[in-house]
Amino acid sequence: MSTDPETVTFIEDQLAGLRVRTLRMFGEFGIYCDEKIVGLICDDALFLKPSSADPELFARTELAPPYPGAKDYHRVPGDALEDRDWLGAAVQATADALPAPRAKKAKPHS
Protein backbone atom coordinates (compact mmCIF):
# COMPACT_ATOMS: atom_id res chain seq x y z
CA MET A 1 0.00 0.00 0.00
CA SER A 2 1.28 3.49 -0.70
CA THR A 3 0.56 6.85 0.83
CA ASP A 4 -2.29 8.97 -0.52
CA PRO A 5 -0.97 12.38 -1.65
CA GLU A 6 -3.77 13.97 0.42
CA THR A 7 -2.13 12.55 3.56
CA VAL A 8 1.14 14.24 2.64
CA THR A 9 -0.63 17.53 1.97
CA PHE A 10 -2.45 17.29 5.32
CA ILE A 11 0.82 16.71 7.21
CA GLU A 12 2.51 19.58 5.37
CA ASP A 13 -0.43 21.86 6.23
CA GLN A 14 -0.27 20.81 9.89
CA LEU A 15 3.40 21.81 9.92
CA ALA A 16 2.91 25.22 8.30
CA GLY A 17 5.31 27.66 9.91
CA LEU A 18 8.18 25.18 10.12
CA ARG A 19 10.81 24.80 7.43
CA VAL A 20 9.39 21.50 6.20
CA ARG A 21 9.35 19.79 2.83
CA THR A 22 8.52 16.31 1.63
CA LEU A 23 10.23 14.29 -1.06
CA ARG A 24 9.09 11.12 -2.77
CA MET A 25 11.36 8.22 -1.79
CA PHE A 26 11.02 4.57 -2.78
CA GLY A 27 7.31 4.95 -3.52
CA GLU A 28 6.64 6.70 -0.21
CA PHE A 29 7.77 10.04 1.22
CA GLY A 30 10.60 11.43 3.31
CA ILE A 31 9.90 14.48 5.46
CA TYR A 32 12.57 17.10 6.06
CA CYS A 33 12.74 19.88 8.63
CA ASP A 34 15.56 22.43 8.50
CA GLU A 35 17.02 20.32 5.65
CA LYS A 36 17.37 17.27 7.94
CA ILE A 37 15.39 14.11 7.23
CA VAL A 38 13.24 13.78 10.34
CA GLY A 39 10.94 10.98 9.29
CA LEU A 40 8.99 9.03 6.73
CA ILE A 41 5.40 8.99 5.60
CA CYS A 42 4.55 5.37 4.77
CA ASP A 43 1.15 3.73 4.30
CA ASP A 44 -0.59 6.99 5.28
CA ALA A 45 1.23 7.17 8.62
CA LEU A 46 3.95 9.53 9.89
CA PHE A 47 7.04 7.97 11.43
CA LEU A 48 9.55 10.26 13.16
CA LYS A 49 13.19 9.27 13.55
CA PRO A 50 14.36 8.29 17.01
CA SER A 51 16.65 10.96 18.46
CA SER A 52 17.92 12.40 21.71
CA ALA A 53 14.87 14.72 21.87
CA ASP A 54 12.90 14.69 25.14
CA PRO A 55 11.35 11.20 25.41
CA GLU A 56 8.29 12.61 27.23
CA LEU A 57 7.39 14.50 24.06
CA PHE A 58 7.04 11.18 22.25
CA ALA A 59 4.88 9.44 24.86
CA ARG A 60 1.94 9.75 22.42
CA THR A 61 3.74 7.65 19.82
CA GLU A 62 4.49 3.96 19.54
CA LEU A 63 7.69 2.40 18.27
CA ALA A 64 7.14 0.62 14.97
CA PRO A 65 9.03 0.09 11.72
CA PRO A 66 7.86 2.29 8.83
CA TYR A 67 8.35 -0.61 6.40
CA PRO A 68 9.34 -4.29 6.71
CA GLY A 69 12.93 -4.73 7.85
CA ALA A 70 13.36 -1.11 9.02
CA LYS A 71 14.44 -0.02 12.48
CA ASP A 72 11.72 1.30 14.78
CA TYR A 73 10.63 4.91 14.43
CA HIS A 74 8.05 6.87 16.44
CA ARG A 75 4.72 6.12 14.73
CA VAL A 76 2.45 9.15 15.18
CA PRO A 77 -1.19 8.15 15.82
CA GLY A 78 -4.06 9.96 14.10
CA ASP A 79 -5.10 12.02 17.13
CA ALA A 80 -1.54 13.37 17.43
CA LEU A 81 -1.50 14.26 13.71
CA GLU A 82 -4.59 16.38 14.39
CA ASP A 83 -2.79 18.24 17.21
CA ARG A 84 -0.91 20.91 15.25
CA ASP A 85 0.96 22.28 18.30
CA TRP A 86 2.19 18.87 19.46
CA LEU A 87 3.10 17.77 15.93
CA GLY A 88 5.09 20.92 15.24
CA ALA A 89 6.93 20.59 18.55
CA ALA A 90 7.74 16.91 17.91
CA VAL A 91 9.02 17.52 14.37
CA GLN A 92 11.10 20.55 15.39
CA ALA A 93 12.53 18.72 18.44
CA THR A 94 13.53 15.82 16.20
CA ALA A 95 15.23 18.17 13.74
CA ASP A 96 17.01 20.03 16.54
CA ALA A 97 18.32 16.76 18.01
CA LEU A 98 19.66 15.37 14.72
CA PRO A 99 23.11 16.24 13.38
CA ALA A 100 23.44 18.57 10.43
CA PRO A 101 23.48 16.78 7.08
CA ARG A 102 26.92 16.10 5.67
CA ALA A 103 28.00 18.41 2.89
CA LYS A 104 27.87 16.73 -0.49
CA LYS A 105 31.16 16.48 -2.33
CA ALA A 106 31.27 18.46 -5.53
CA LYS A 107 31.52 16.32 -8.64
CA PRO A 108 34.69 17.03 -10.62
CA HIS A 109 34.07 18.60 -14.02
CA SER A 110 35.56 16.78 -16.95
Automatic annotation (TrEMBL):
Pfam families with a match to the protein in the record: TfoX_N
UniProt domain TfoX N-terminal: residue ranges: 19-97
Gene3D superfamilies, A to Z: YgaC/TfoX-N like chaperone
SUPFAM superfamilies: YgaC/TfoX-N like (SSF159894)
InterPro entries linked: TfoX_N (IPR007076)
Domain of life where this protein originates: Bacteria
Stated name of the protein: TfoX family protein
